[in-house]
Amino acid sequence: MLDIISNLFYFIIAITILIAFHEFGHFWVAKKLGIKVLRFSIGFGKPLYSRRFGADNIEFVLAAIPLGGYVKMLDERDSNVVASEVHRAFNRQHVFKRFAVVFAGPAFNFIFAIFAYWLVFVVSVTDLKPIIGEIVADSPADLAGLKKGFEIISVAGKDTPVISVAISSMLPALLDQSVINLRAKDKSGIISEYELNFNKINPDAALANYYRAVGILPWRPTGPPKVTGLVPDKPAIKAGFKVGDTIIKIGNQNIKGTRELINYISSRPEKLLDVVVKRNSVDINIKVTPARIIRDGKTYGQIGLKTSSGKYPDSMKVEYQYSALQAVPQAINKVWVNTKLMLNTFGKMLSGSVSINKISGPITIAKYAGMTASSGFSTFISFLAVVSISLGMINLFPIPILDGGHLFNYLIEMIKGSPVSENFEMVGQRVGILVLAMLMSIALYNDILGILR
Length: 453
Known about the structure:
By secondary structure, the chain is an alpha+beta fold. It has helices at about 1-30, 95-120, 140-145, 165-170, 170-175, 205-210, 210-215, 235-240, 260-265, 325-350, 360-375, 375-395, 405-415, 420-450, and strands at about 35-55, 60-75, 125-130, 130-135, 150-155, 160, 180-185, 190-195, 215-220, 225-230, 245-250, 255, 275-280, 280-290, 290-295, 300, 305-310, 315-320.
């Protein structure tokens, strides 16, 4: 229950921040262009807070449903406008001004993402050294000749100070199913170049677990895994596992680490396992049958354990940061790369090479909001940046009732020299509502399916 409350709390914070920034884009540009703003609302439904400000007596509103927002401007299509203010009505503005006001919302989402990443890069971040913990057999990394214990120096000519940067630098090539070069240092200190070929990688598998798709798993502490948490209503808690148990053995196999435990259980769905755990210095036998789950067409076993093999030593940690000036191009590049990845993924969904089960809804976003917030400031800010990019990109799609739909109509107006007809707009709005309803249905279905799994 506490997890649900925490997730909901951070979800509301995240959505409120991103919506406010998006709507502020519309508001700020409208004001700069001399258009009269009547209301700035964050959320829909019943107002929870309201106040007026400025020479135009603009109403600021915080409403009950934090799933959107709007900026209401003076417009003759909504109400009668006195003659002295007709020149400030939105509908009377030149098409280029209207385009600028509408475009500003998504643009501010990208600006926010750049600022968020800039903040992350300026603040000192602790991560793991780019040392390979394990190589997945027959993976691109394995076929390239990389080995356990190698340190990744650079990817595609860019330095990789930490493992997360190293793997994320490979993502564009991974989703493009192309080739990428990297430099790595072996245990004797010799630096060599390696070519990773991703042309046989399934994009769905890449999105599900890009570490495993690349074939490089991060270094982790070794030692018998200790139970740190139990997932409600899963086999582990029903079988009698307790937080604090140390898993020693399954069957005849000694368990030396978390990854070995995961591999053993995931490969044995619906098979009775005899597990030996140490609890208060006493060995206890527990019998458990992993539930059968299907992910991306493959079957896995899962018992619902959260485990850890110990703390990461300081020797494996790296603190890195950029100066305020150095962080600017890094942040812009990060937004650019993530935008390309999202567009690439969306394109593959349209072509059918990536499943639509990758579309996430509010439940999944809330879950990740809570998870990233509990992981620290930098992780949560990075999460906000990713969601902000998504909001900006989605709003630019030419779907009627979204910003992109209005921009599409304005482009037509620029070409033909007159606004689109009211009938065209009405039909477009109906189509837009239908498309959004379908997307939301898919997203919620995926969310619920994720919970049931």
